[in-house]
Amino acid sequence: MSDSKKSTGINNLSRRAVLAGGAALSASLFAPKMLRAQDYPTAEINTTGLAVTDDTVTCGILHSVTGTMAISETGSVQAEKLAIEQINAQGGILGRKIEYIQEDGASDWPTFAEKARKLLVQDKVASVMGCWTSASRKAVLPVFEQNNGFLYYPTFYEGLEESPNVIYTGQEATQQIIAGLNWVNQTKGAKSFYLLGSDYIWPRTSNKIARKHIENFMEGCEVVGEEYYPLGHTQFNSVINKIRLRKPDVIYAIVVGGSNVAFYKQLKAAGIDPAEESPIVLTISVTEDEIRGIGGENIDGAYACMKYFQSLENENNQEFVSAFKEMWGEDIVIGDVTQAAYLGPWLWKAAVEKAGSFDVDKVREASPGIELQTAPEGYVKVHENHHLWSKTRVGRAKTDGQYDVVYETADLVEPDPFPEGYQ
Amino acid sequence: MQPMPIKHPFLTRRDIVGYAILAAVIFVAFPLLLEPFRLNLFGKYLTYAFVAVGLVLCWGVGGILSLGQGIFFGLGGYCMAMFLKLEASTPENTSIQSTPGIPDFMDWNQLTALPWWWEPFNSLFFTLIAVVIVPVAFAFIIGVAMFRRRVGGVYFAIITQAIAAILTILIIGQQGFTGGVNGITDLRTFNGWDIRTNDAKTLLYFVNGALLFAVLLIAQFVRKSKLGRLLIAMRDQEDRVRFSGYDVANFKIFVFCLGAGFAAIGGAMFTLQVGFMSPTFVGIVPSIEMVIYAAVGGRLSIIGAVYGTLLVNYAKTTFSESFPELWLFGLGALFIAVVMAFPNGLAGLWADHVEPRLKSLWPRGDAKHPASTSPATTEETPAE
Predict the structure, then answer these.
(1) Rounded to two decimals, what is the model's pTM?
(2) Between A248 and which of A74, A192, A311, B18 could a Cys-Cys bridge form, CB atoms 3.0 to 4.6 Å apart?
(3) How far apart are CA B30 and CA B39, in angstroms?
């Protein structure tokens, strides 16, 4: 690698002298679709020894492709590969094709940390697209901060974090929760809520925010119950009985993974049919991916609060969905996180080109304010706090496993990872 | 205990050569050949070797198959992690929280004060003692409850597995106190010394290696002592040992506690080198994996356990780096191959195939073995 760097320096200096005038002019006059590598000598755009050569740049993909999380994370891997391929088809970043090194986190948090360290220390990747669960993110965070890596993290999550080394392309909790609660209150007249979830940090923090919002900011509303079950729990009959007893207007469910299947099936078997809306079932943890496991007929009529649904009707999304299906097969479904993962490489490209450098410090500095007009979810923008401005949407599940979008916020919702009054 | 008969010296020449080769591999070859990142990885592997050595004593020598060694590895690791976490959670570092000065996950779970049982972990001295004492005491309770009632064999294995599962659920469920699924993360300094730098990691690697050798020698001592021979006798004919007037349960409890203590030291070193601890090391799967390390190394061989651990973990890392989607199959194939072809593991392979050839080359056997990094000696098999 050091050899190629030396030769680049010499080559590019002479070439640069010749091209300087014309290139600078064209770059400033026309929106540069194709940035040429020779306009950006490797020595200048990579001062910290990252894996950048004259015609390639290497990034890492770090997700679980084995173990229990593989089923959820596969969509993210696919989306990231699609984005990388599309970017390369457009000429790459600063004229350099993106190459990726994929590592398997194996659904095991220490493995994530080990692989993150490997990607940063040994492979010197310029950025990493990866992680899914909060636990895996927490495990790699010190590694990224210590080695000054740059992570694009796709999952909606609990907030309470704002790392200089992470761009959060999913929603933090308030972006996913507040608008949905307001909507169900205003349009459905819901007043009482039963909160339940899987027992770990994301559902707990999310329900804490939901409870604070319901109790402090929604007139006359109350929480009538709050319960947690271990990950993988499959016996929900007792909570279903309690729900029947308390008669809430809304069941607010943040059940994740395999538990979802049992929960919705048992709910339906117990005579609580989401389609009848008494009570209304509102969830923030079921995307199109999960419905494949649950079965559309079991969850038909439930509402989900996300920022993206596969059925969104806009040009960006139609292109994205057809490209995705072309690459990964007709039967594939695309959930909220998959779309957020797709944004990662594009946001990185935009930030690098704005910074004119792959150096992590410069990319970090350039990131706030980056806008994507082409995002499948619509226009998004990076906030100072490294999260995205996004709309909140409510979808209603159908038997075919897709959602009907029934509501979206008029404006982008500001990300607020440390919400005042909700802690 | 009686003085050692001359027939059973603490270290035979063969043992000395084996330990010398292992020392050369750990203290010279790895540090010279590996870059800091890989060295740190091997340091992590070696922390599992503590558990594997304990298993050789419990299972290979004593016939007590514990499928719950992760419990002790985890407890040791958690004790160390609690100390490190408290040190990292200074009011300045945690000023963004609603209650500054307590670990971040407590704040996320609406705790407003440090639980009383966390308080002692502010003390380094207490922590170093707790790292060993807590798991050993726990092992003692399990041991007394099981062995005094003559629970053994498969039943004992199943019970240890159940305890591992229970402890995992407890840790995950009490996330306000333990960090839950995420574990205790973002550990920074050990008594003011930054453990995240490459220099610190290299130093920790050597400390880890030295501790491992201490553990190996203790294991070797137990193995060669009268106690070790009694353990073998118990494994093969427990009733005869009992009828000879020995209290079998006490020996079992002792060796089980010893294994737990080894595992706990490994766990604490793991936390120091990796920088966090999570319930994934306490559960059933890691506990079984640790048995596999011992099995691959040869469950009778103390040194073999170290090589087995290194081989399995290195294979795991390499396979998963090269074939992210298929690596588990490769690893599975390795285990099946070892069990089918070499039931005595690497140590058996060495004793049966390599050593005889070396002996024919050097008939007197006192010439130095060629600088080989492959597995070294084995212990006598029980048939002898």
Answers:
(1) 0.84
(2) A192
(3) 7
